[in-house]
Amino acid sequence: MKRIILSLSLVIATTTAFSQVKFSLGVRLGANYSQITNSELDAKTGLYAGLFTDFRFTSFYALQPEVTYSNQGGKSNTDGIGELDIHYVSIGVANKFYIFKDSGLHFIVGPSIDVNFEANVISLINDDGELEITPFDVTLFGGIGYEFPFGLSVEARYKHGFFDLDAASGEWDVYGNYHDDEDLLNSVIQIGATYKFDF
pTM value? Predict the structure, then answer.
């Protein structure tokens, strides 16, 4: 009997907790200001756009899984150096912390996996070519935003990659010595807006 009462109490407590979770779908849209570290390329302006789901667990915390298209890379202003135009599909999980009660101001932090839409393992197999840019990147992002009561938010984020973009990084010389180049990493500032549809 005690076990039944305990189990029932647990079910009621869990149901009550999850019934207070607010669920929303939304869209993201904005501009990227991207650079490739340790390269001769200048910063490049691109676009990002995506979809997300927002789970508001408490008044101060929300979890936001998101899928985003992101155009990144670097711009060339020098002859002989080509531009780098990378199209990513980014799968991320944003943790949003609302620091003041009854205020839309919040901090954003989370990881993402960015899959190179054009130069990935599947396209390499299909095209039978050489992979020059790594097929994916693992990034960490952080930022700040403000959410208005009617569902619109404005936000600014900084995203930094951890995987070297040069798939052929480093080379062996004629003496059998390996020379490793400096890592070429994604560095992106994102400024944009989101809109949530409440259900």
Answer: 0.77
